[in-house]
Protein: LuxR family two component transcriptional regulator
Amino acid sequence: MIRVLLVDDQTLVRAGFRSILEGEDDIEVVGEASDGAEALRSARDLDPHVMLIDIRMPVLDGLETTRRIAADPRLAGVKVIILTTFDLDEYVYAALRAGASGFLVKDTEPAEMTHAIRVVARGDALLAPSVTRRLIAELATRSRHPDPSPRLNVLTAREREVMTLVAQGLTNDEIAARLVLSPATVKTHVSRIMTKLDVRDRTQLVILSYESAMVTPGWLS
Structure:
């Protein structure tokens, strides 16, 4: 059962999300919060797997809430999906960089929302297509002035190879086929890479790969 915490300052929005999710056999809404400060307290008490967090809230907004979740060892297993009304929200990149695993606009279809929760709960990254394009554009701009991170020095040659393929959007099965490895071996490599680089999930691996110029968008090659 995937445990979900809803965080939005609008009661009707939370009620709408709850009504959608309560119809799913494998998803349980364990609580609600109306601002980031309340969300942090609830997360520590309720131990959710996934938090749906509105990016614009009073007291503590979604961006700062995400930062604090990512920095709290007690919440290491919590995945964040950022919600907003606009897919061109100015904080999209910052939220993902802060530790969010995915990003959805509030008019997302119910089936897409439940799919997003399942994807993020199993450790994968989730981005709406329009957000993916915007994120890659932002990363492309940054890659023109790369900042090679000394953090990458801890990786083996094989781990660098795997990380590059993750950044290119390949799944574990696709990476396994490319490198003639078992999917289980690839999964182990990805887990070790995330541990060594102290990143929460594949989204952060992708961002770090682009910012360090480990990979470059095709139009900049």
